[in-house]
Amino acid sequence: MAEKYNIAIVGNKDTILGFKGLGLKTFDANTTEEAVKLLFKLKDEEITVDEKTGEKRPAYAIIFITENFASEISKDDYKKLSGEALPAIIPVPGSKGTAGYGIKRIGKMVEQAVGSDIFSE
């Protein structure tokens, strides 16, 4: 049987409330500093997969974060948060709509992976 991973969203209460009904774990933050602390806490959470061997894995596969907070994360913190495959930290539009940060971030990741920004016009 495949192990289940959790999916979380970090953002302000108005934005994240609806995601709870979709089964995401929601974490309310009012400032970028609070959001970053939550991201590090969630990134460090682990689940023991095998009691005998002590094998562990990340508790979260994906952590969504609203663009307003994601765009203000320092480069150092972003490197620390995204240094491993899991959890994937994905920016999503906030309650006021998109600021374009999420698609720019994805464009940079694609450019690093394939050598060209396929999203640019």
Any overview of this molecule?
- With 121 residues, the protein is of the alpha/beta class.
- It has one domain (6-114): Rossmann fold (3-Layer(aba) Sandwich), CATH 3.40.50.
- 38% of the residues lie in helices and 26% in strands.
- It has five helices and six strands; from the N terminus they run βαβαβββααβα.
- It has helices spanning 13-20, 32-44, 67-70, 75-81, 101-114, and strands spanning 6-11, 25-28, 46-50, 55-58, 60-66, 88-92.
- It has a four-stranded parallel beta sheet with strand order 2-1-5-6, sandwiched between helices.
- The longest helix is centred in the C-terminal third of the chain and has 14 residues, at 101-114.
Question: What is the count of helical runs?
Answer: 5
What percentage of residues falls in helices of 4 or more residues? Answer: 25-40%
Query: In what range is the share of β-strand residues?
Result: 25-35%
Q: Report the radius of gyration as a whole number of Å.
A: 15 Å
- Unreliable stretches (pLDDT < 50, length at least 5) are none
Our count of domains comes out at: 1
The CATH class name reads Alpha Beta
Q: What's the name of the CATH homologous superfamily?
A: ATPase, V1 complex, subunit F
Distance between the terminal alpha carbons, to the nearest Å?
Answer: 44 Å
Mean pLDDT: 82
What CATH architecture label applies?
Answer: 3-Layer(aba) Sandwich
The class by helix and strand makeup works out as alpha/beta
Within the largest sheet, what's the order of strands? 2-1-5-6
Number of strands: 6
